[in-house]
Amino acid sequence: xxxxxxxxxxxxxxxxxxxxxxxxxxxxxxxxxxxxxxxxxxxxxxxxxxxxxxxxxxxxxxxxxxxxxxxxxxxxxxxxxxxxxxxxxxxxxxxxxxxxxxxxxxxxxxxxxxxxxxxxxxxxxxxxxxxxxxxxxxxxxxxxxxxxxxxxxxxxxxxxxxxxxxxxxxxxxxxxxxxxx
Amino acid sequence: xxxxxxxxxxxxxxxxxxxxxxxxxxxxxxxxxxxxxxxxxxxxxxxxxxxxxxxxxxxxxxxxxxxxxxxxxxxxxxxxxxxxxxxxxxxxxxxxxxxxxxxxxxxxxxxxxxxxxxxxxxxxxxxxxxxxxxxxxxxxxxxxxxxxxxxxxxxxxxxxxxxxxxxxxxxxxxxxxxxxxxxxxxxxxxxxxxxxxxxxxxxxxxxxxxxxxxxxxxxxxxxxxxxxxxxxxxxxxxxxxxxxxxxxxxxxxxxxxxxxxxxxxxxxxxxxxxxxxxxxxxxxxxxxxxxxxxxxxxxxxxxxxxxxxxxxxxxxxxxxxxxxxxxxxxxxxxxxxxxxxxxxxxxxxxxxxxxxxxxxxxxxxxxxxxxxxxxxxxxxxxxxxxxxxxxxxxxxxxxxxxxxxxxxxxxxxxxxxxxxxxxxxxxxxxxxxxxxx
Lengths: 181, 437
What we know:
A: alpha+beta, five-stranded mixed β-sheet, globular, B: alpha+beta, three-stranded antiparallel β-sheet
């Protein structure tokens, strides 16, 4: 599969909703040179399922991860998807960037289209406090179920206190250890 | 026990007598009824903390809940928010996994190199490939041993792990360490593989080539192994694709999914890597544990070929584009951008996303994805409908990781000695020096 082909399919399907598309080539190999192209683009959050559905219709689809961070005024999520595995150099990496307002941190779940996205969506619920309506399970993946904070948020009022408590606990703990030894 | 409880029913610490009876003897389960068996997070049968709650009907598993996170260390948070610079984070990334300890640095360095626009010299790319493939050999042999142990076939475990020592010796020879090789650095590698080391690597490859058929024979043509693994823990190709399984777990179900083939990186396009499935061994892929053994063993052979080719075609030249660390740090501090780095680790796809902001030493965003993260969901269909006795091998078949210890206790000539971490480290240095002489 060619990156150009994936890019055109996304442009046709999403129209206005497919913004600032970019092809980022990387040349690999020493004796046998090869160019691997990645697609990076912005998609509004409500168009994410449509974009993922379009990619799925092009070939076997894989989601690597959804990465995200707190960009102060909003939360940014990046869907790192790969379409078309199975042939040499035939897989195209597609990164879809979306903005989630903090006043309404919700993005439609893609688990209905790609069930393999469940773990990574659940991880975003606990770390960034973004909800994914339609996700089959909201259990935490890594953090304790009763943890009161979303650790990757920069505006988390409880985080500083929480970390402070942790550091204090560690200090106390270290003291005890050195006293014992 | 029952009588003692009846004598002491007023203890306020303990639950009510009726509840305690249920806790101690278990609920009464009639024929055909479903009940829960919680295993973990701390359990003698598990080598790492995870909680598996099985719903069983007689001997058959009808459902499972998986809870992870008992060993969550917040490594990404430590990298992003605690003022570490990228070189410090590189060593942190190496410690994400003890077994595939070059996979994360390889993905991380690529992500940073993409973000900061750093080129990697050809020779360094080849060295990274060689170390990665040596690691694949050691990791697959380690897994094969664990699988044999989970099947109750400990002779095969000891045989496989004895054979594995050779590749660990070579890794120690090349990097100074059995694990945590500290080879990649942004823009290249930290250590060269010098021509006088080639014969030793080639000798190890000959050793594994000679043993390869014997290994295949011991695992794949053994009636006990076949009886315990055929038709057990099946992952259908459609499920593997939908659940985004990676690595040997996906390939055993017949998916030709291998990042080295699909999205070549570093020098991998030179070696024309093809994803291995059971079809390459003349079998129709079923996706059971047997197929996972087939794929991992054949990949040992594939790695031997890649390393041989790499040693033959090793380009001359520099091993890093930034020989001076302060210059590298200054360049990284000025860099602004984002990048993705990926690698086919022994267990499957590792991917790192990094975003750098000019003037900051730490990255703004660092996201790590390990292979077991992708394979977690595959456990559900694999467990369902299986027998309780097959839980250990199904749990092990996606190859989750195991941690290490910091001291050992030794009895020599009837005298007890305690070895500390420092003592073991000294021994290890002495051994590396002996090997290099």
